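Reply to dn_fold:

You asked what the input looked like. This is it:
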Amino acid sequence: MQDTMRRIRRETRTSDPAVAADVVAQTHVTHGLEAIPDGASFSFEERVRGTRLLSLESTSCTGVLTGEVEPDSAMVLVWLKSGRGSVDGRPVPIGRPTLYRHAPQPFRWESFQKDVIRIDRATVEAVAAERGGWAPGPLEFKPQHVPEGPTLAAWWLMIRTVASEVLHGPEEVPADRERELTRFAAGGLLTAIPHWPVTQRPPRSASSARFARAETFLLEHAAEPITVGDVAAAGDLSVRGLQNAFQRHHGMTPLSYLRRIRLLLAREQLQAGHVDVTVADAARAAGFAHLGRFAAAYREEFGELPRDTRRAALGW
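and this is what came back:
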């Protein structure tokens, strides 16, 4: 009989601050947690779906949540969709992932919408060791790092893939598939935020491991006319070795990964709402030479044409 894991689903809506605080305390290890109404009314909603290895959480609240949070056996990353927030006394930017430290840290969220991903810590450490060429163990991450450009696009590519499966997939999932998806999520985290073993000093450059070098080259040159051979050479890999490594770490070929990174880069430009940036400008800046093929690939990836994204961002 195939080993399976069950994805829990929990949804809570309440107008009672005490209930909201209890719900948050069930989802996270917290200290001194308070839920405070901000005005005449208070509303809170939380949705959680996933397993002990990998889960997604979405929370919205019209009031204030404040206290300390302490990650347990998971790596916890949060990104603010609207409102205001701070972690460790530092403002959390909209639309950028923030990694919780593996220690108690103060937080404050005000009239917000935010999402959270929890990734099994042991899996992250194992994938980091494989990618970095060191022994598995605790990791240090660059403090307050905010990914931008291609590394941010790689992060959102991971989130889109994980969310599609976790939120819309079956309740019972083969354990091997859940472990594979958790490894994929770990790779997205490790690509987005610089890291190193706690026994080492912060590296001055990317890890010397071959796949890490190849992936770094691809992301640093994503908008340039690079080939699979260029990426393989950067990591001192054969083309077949590169193909196998990308399938293992990202579940797709290097060219598919590069194409989706470029599409996300173009989408970020279009969503910025700059009136002087045309669809053709965004396509060329992201590395697409053929506008028609770009539009078709964009529609396949996001379900809308690039011009529709631009119009919505400009309010037209």
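Residues 149-168 form the longest helix (20 residues).
Hope that clears it up.
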